UniProtKB/TrEMBL annotation:
Protein's recorded name: Phosphoacetylglucosamine mutase
Database matches in InterPro entries: A-D-PHexomutase_a/b/a-I, A-D-PHexomutase_a/b/a-I/II/III, A-D-PHexomutase_C, A-D-PHexomutase_C_sf, A-D-PHexomutase_CS, Alpha-D-phosphohexomutase_SF, AMG1_II, AMG1_III
Broadest EC class assigned to this enzyme: isomerase
PANTHER family: PHOSPHOACETYLGLUCOSAMINE MUTASE (PTHR45955:SF1)
Length: 534
């Protein structure tokens, strides 16, 4: 908004005239009186909340519609400052003046006076978050409040029915800054553009932004580096501090991997599997809360690369399907569910809402205010998600929204389940086309007899699982292996330091044994055999 919105204010103010012979006062806890008298007050509080936010450089102002312990026929409204505190005293007087302006003309004049005296830059974007209690007069008064916000062009977020302390908490909440590894690629442009919209609530700190430096793209950074090396990009070592979340895009920003350092500065990765678990759980929770349990099927699609712990965790809760690598395969399978959540472990994925699921969301009649809030959150998620394809930016917002709703840090998200130690290895072979697979790439059918020999190795590892498949994008064969423990090759039992055991990097053995076998069986030159292959 660049200029004073006279016509909007006049238009909306006329819809919410002040009742004559009433004097309002912003008292102990805001305005509070008979609900039937409050329509104009709520409209004007909407205008004032927008002015307060503009005065504070667009920081989020809270508005709570409640009369607390008063009889049900009363209602009220109070403003909450950006740190979740009560409105600053001097503004209480402004609120009282504004509410008592008799006519639309008087009201416009008081608004202008406030702008002048408070030196408010009207061009700033105002951010306001609103909530109400369960009083029957609440929805009508919130509608009046929203008219005030609309007249001022404020960005409003209606949290529906919430307790007063939750509204204070939400108003004071700002996500901690998120470090974004842009892989020195095009994702930087998108992150920069998005930052202009979200920085006031989710500050983004882009790193690895050398888009013009030759050789920098995906080099020791980006989602693939983090996922395959299971470590922090070296460029972020001096950037990230314990507890802070970070995420990596890949070179074209369609993959997303999260990570954080714990309080001992140990690296922890939150990959596509962890994203799928977070998202699928949240969607199931919203659907249940909205009273839609059993109305549609929520399913998850993974590939053979999904960590065994994630598959176990998810399949105890929802239908889970395994398909061949490639988002095209996952996307197709996800279309079979009402809400299909698909993510490859490498961080590539999204959520699909079928047309019938969307029409259920549109037509469903919630039977309680709480159900209505869950429903509107689920509808908002369907808007937030880029359903055409996995999108690192949209997925990042999705993750952040869920973490904010759940009040989760990286650590709490991570503890949904513990990854099995795992390793992904590339094997350069003479001809990768001799490798053919079945069972969603989990077993080899060619070269003949090789799968049998792999099985002989895998069974020596507790909870061992491994597979070999030719890449569809690089001239290599990929080997994935995971296991519960790290037994010695002779099968003798071993004692483990539990903490060490769950650091994934400690687990190269099964993967390197299989890689060695694949290399030898496909005619690899023994003089060039990588020394880590067993
Ligand atoms: C592409 C596909 C992904 C696939 C990845 C690796 O990713 O879109 O679905 O997981 O290649 O495939 P492969 O293991 O066959 O080489 P991107 O990000 O490179 O487009």
């Amino acid at each position: 908004m660049s200029s004073f919105p006279t016509s909007e204010l006049v238009k909306f103010s006329d819809l919410h005239p002040k009742p004559s012979n009433v004097t309002f006062s912003y008292g102990t806890a805001g305005f509070r009186t008979k609900a039937s008298l409050l329509d104009s007050v709520l409209f004007r509080v909407g205008v004032l909340a927008a002015l307060r936010s503009k005065r504070l450089d667009g920081k989020t102002i809270g508005v709570m519609v409640t009369a607390s312990h008063n009889p049900e026929a009363d209602n009220g409204v109070k403003l909450v400052d950006p740190r979740g505190e009560m409105l600053e005293n001097s503004w209480e007087t402004l609120a009282t003046n504004l509410s008592n302006a008799e006519t639309t003309g008087d009201f416009i004049q008081v608004v202008k006076n406030i702008i002048n005296h408070q030196k408010i830059d009207i061009s700033k974007t105002a951010n306001v978050i609103i909530a109400r209690d369960t009083r029957p007069s609440g929805p009508g008064l919130v509608a009046a409040l929203e008219d005030g916000l609309r007249a001022m062009g404020a960005v409003a977020r209606n949290e529906g029915v919430k307790t007063t302390p939750i509204l204070h908490y939400l108003a004071g909440k700002k996500a901690p800054p998120l470090v974004v590894d842009c892989a020195n690629g095009v994702g930087f442009f998108a992150a920069k553009a998005m930052g202009e919209y979200v920085n006031s609530v989710l500050p983004l700190i882009p790193h690895n932004i050398a888009i013009n430096a030759l050789g920098a793209l995906n080099n020791a950074c980006g989602a693939d580096y983090v996922k395959t090396s299971q470590r922090l990009p070296p460029s972020l070592v001096s950037v990230l501090h314990p507890g802070q979340r970070a995420c990596s895009f890949d070179g074209d920003a369609d993959r997303l991997i999260y990570f954080y350092l714990d309080d001992r500065s140990q690296f922890h990765m939150l990959d596509g599997d962890k994203i799928a678990a977070l998202v699928a759980n949240f969607i199931a929770e919203l659907a249940k809360g909205a009273g839609l349990d059993g109305k549609f099927e929520i399913g998850v699609v993974q590939t053979a690369y999904a960590n065994g712990s994630s598959t176990k965790y998810l399949s105890e809760r929802l239908p889970v399907q395994c398909v061949k690598t490639g988002v095209k395969n996952l996307h197709h399978a996800a279309e079979g569910y009402s809400i299909g959540v698909y993510f490859e472990a490498n961080g590539h994925g999204t959520v699909l809402f079928s047309p019938s699921a969307l029409s259920i969301l549109e037509t469903h009649q919630p039977s309680t205010p709480a159900q209505s809030t869950y429903l509107s959150n689920l509808i908002a998620l369907s808007d937030l998600i880029n359903q055409t394809v996995g999108d690192a930016l949209s997925d990042m917002l999705l993750v952040e929204v869920i973490l904010a709703h759940k009040g989760y840090s990286g650590l709490e998200w991570d503890s949904i389940y513990s990854d099995l130690p795992n390793r992904l290895v590339k094997v350069v072979v003479k001809d990768r086309n001799i490798f053919e697979t079945e069972d969603a790439e989990r077993r080899l059918t060619s070269p003949p007899g090789l799968q049998q020999r792999l099985d002989d190795i895998i069974r020596k590892y507790d909870g061992g699982r491994a597979f070999v498949r030719p890449s569809g994008t690089e001239d290599v064969v990929r080997v994935y292996a995971e296991a519960t423990l790290r037994p010695q090759a002779d099968g003798k039992s071993q004692t483990f330091d539990l903490e060490i055991m769950f650091i994934p990097n400690i687990f190269p053995e099964l993967a390197f044994r299989i890689a060695g076998l694949v290399y030898d069986e496909s005619g690899g030159d023994s003089s060039k055999r990588p020394k880590e292959f067993l």
